[in-house]
Specification:
single chain; about 230 residues; alpha+beta; L-fuculose-1-phosphate Aldolase; 7 helices; 7 strands; binds 5-O-phosphono-D-xylulose; EC 5.1.3.4; Aldolase_II/adducin_N_sf; zinc; L-ribulose-5-phosphate 4-epimerase; Aldolase_class_II_sugar_metab
Length: about 230
């Protein structure tokens, strides 16, 4: 126990298990290789989040080695997993949690089709009903930014604030997704790769047909109503 009070301890323990398990989904859908990529989740009722350790094999990820951080990305000492460094993208996740209070989960992957679009700095156009439903329009591109300070987080927040899309393609890097919880952010990470692949394939055949704005809006509205 780390002195947070019993209710918070239970919440943190549940989130550790959820975040650890969700990493298996990244592998299941082929979104990551080696130790790249990361999932985090905000602790309900506290200025804390849980994220994976850096450089640890996916096979070894477990609730007890997930790392608890404050919203500045500083590891909470004396908690399980605190002996390791948190994922190298921790500062970006922390920036998002600090600046987007509605966000409860953040995911980053190097899923190959989405990375390919990111290398071109080209938004993925909304040319399927699946893209309209999940992203409500094109999937935007964020600025080029390197790891080390708040630049990646700022790029995510600046691009996604007020945008329907829960996904941004950070230029020359890859997709970051957000959601009300970690599972939703993982779902968007899966769907952004699916969109990137489908539109890439469509372009091999010619120029995809755009969806009329009113039809796109209606599809998004319906999907938002049905969304769990
Ligand atoms: O793209 C990057 C770095 O921005 C990440 O995907 C890292 O590859 C994550 O690795 P860990 O530090 O989490 O092991």
């Amino acid at each position: 126990m780390s002195g947070f009070g019993p209710e918070l301890e239970v919440g943190i323990a549940r989130l550790r298990a959820e975040v650890a398990n969700l990493h298996a989904e990244l592998r299941h859908y082929g979104l990551v290789v080696w130790t790249g990529g990361n999932v985090s989740g905000r602790v309900a009722g506290a200025d804390l989040f849980v994220i994976k350790p850096s450089g640890v094999s996916y096979d070894q990820l477990a609730p007890e080695n997930m790392i608890l951080c404050d919203l500045d990305g500083v590891v909470v000492q004396g908690t399980p997993g605190a002996g390791r460094s948190p994922s190298s993208d921790t500062a970006a996740h922390a920036y998002v949690y600090r600046n987007m209070p509605e966000v409860g989960g953040v995911v980053h992957t190097h899923s190959p089709y989405a990375v390919a679009w990111a290398t071109r700095g080209e938004p993925i156009p909304c040319v399927t009903t699946a893209i309209a439903a999940e992203f409500g329009g094109e999937i935007p591109v964020g600025p080029f930014a390197v790891i080390g300070d708040d630049a990646i987080g700022r790029g995510i927040v600046d691009t996604l604030s007020g945008h329907r899309s829960p996904a941004v393609l950070m230029q020359n890097h890859g997709p970051f997704t957000i959601g009300p919880d970690a599972r939703s952010a993982v779902r968007s990470a899966v769907l952004v790769e699916d969109a990137a692949r489908a539109v890439h394939l469509a372009r091999q055949l010619g120029e995809p047909i755009p969806i009329a704005q009113d039809a796109l809006d209606e599809r998004y509205r319906l999907a938002s109503q049905l969304s769990p």
